[in-house]
Specification:
InterPro entries: AB_hydrolase_1, AB_hydrolase_fold, Sec-Metab_Biosynth_Hydrolase. The structure is a single chain. The chain is an alpha/beta fold. The chain has one domain: Rossmann fold (3-Layer(aba) Sandwich), CATH 3.40.50. It is built from ten helices and eight strands. The strands form two sheets. It has a six-stranded parallel β-sheet with strand order 2-1-3-4-7-8, sandwiched between helices. Strands 5-6 form a two-stranded antiparallel ribbon. Strand 1, helix 1 and strand 2 form a beta-alpha-beta unit. The longest helix is centred in the N-terminal third of the chain and has 12 residues. The chain is globular and about 45 Å long.
Length: 236
């Protein structure tokens, strides 16, 4: 039996992992879903002090004293989750990146975007988010028509739930840089590519210790294809 620690990306709480978590538990594993400070059901805790170090602490606390951990990071969880993994390599069996990858030292989440999208996010933070928050995207049918790639595979019911439960993201998680040690632990790593191909991933991530696989769907495979995602997680 392994312990799967499931970390949501931006805007959502542990609820996004409910079906995947159930399937992993049915297979006999322990599952811990991480509730991150300032987002999801903890949105009321989104003070200006909430940043990458806060989420690193949330994730390390969730791992606790567990051994043989499979740490699963979705999207915006990559910076804090990778830093937590760098601190606890002896507890981890594997890190799984779901439609994301580890960032190099000093790179912020916002820098992954093209310049025009970066400028728009900064505008949203300063105006709609009053300098503290990045508002959640609409997650409606119009949003899906504008961005059919990342919102692929989601039903109208999925979008309704995402829209209802999404919360604004503390801005420091968007703007705060990744911090990596000089010597990166050699923890085995898997990347599950949903909105891009393995070939594209190999251009970003290289080196020993990696396995890669594709799950063609949108950016939230835990909602659009939970059974297939759980099967991939069990396979690692």
């Amino acid at each position: 039996m392994s312990t799967y620690v499931l970390v949501p990306g931006f805007f959502f709480g542990p609820w996004v992992w409910e079906e995947v978590g159930r399937l992993l538990r049915d297979a006999g594993h322990e599952v811990r879903t991480v509730s991150l400070t300032g987002q999801g059901e903890r949105a009321g805790e989104a003070t200006p002090d909430v940043g990458v170090p806060t989420h690193v602490a949330d994730i390390t606390d969730a791992i606790g004293d567990a051994d043989d951990v499979v740490l699963v990071l979705h999207s915006g969880a990559t910076i804090a989750g990778t830093e937590a993994a760098d601190r606890l390599p002896e507890r981890l069996r594997r890190i799984v990146y779901v439609d994301t990858a580890p960032f190099p030292d000093g790179m912020a989440q916002i820098e992954f975007l093209p310049p025009d999208a970066q400028a728009e996010q900064r505008r949203q933070i300063e105006t709609d988010g009053k300098g503290r928050l990045l508002p959640a995207r609409p997650f409606d049918e119009d949003d899906q028509r504008r961005d059919p790639v990342s919102l692929a595979g989601l039903s109208a019911g999925d979008l309704t739930q995402m829209r209802r439960r999404a919360t604004a993201q503390p801005a420091a998680l968007v703007l705060g840089p990744a911090r990596r040690p000089a010597e990166i632990p050699d923890t085995p790593r898997t990347l599950i590519a949903a909105t891009f191909t393995v070939q594209q991933v190999r251009a970003m991530v290289a080196g020993p210790g990696w396995t890669m696989t594709e799950l063609p769907t949108g950016h939230w495979p835990m909602l659009s294809r939970p059974k297939e995602l759980a099967e991939l997680l069990l396979a690692v």
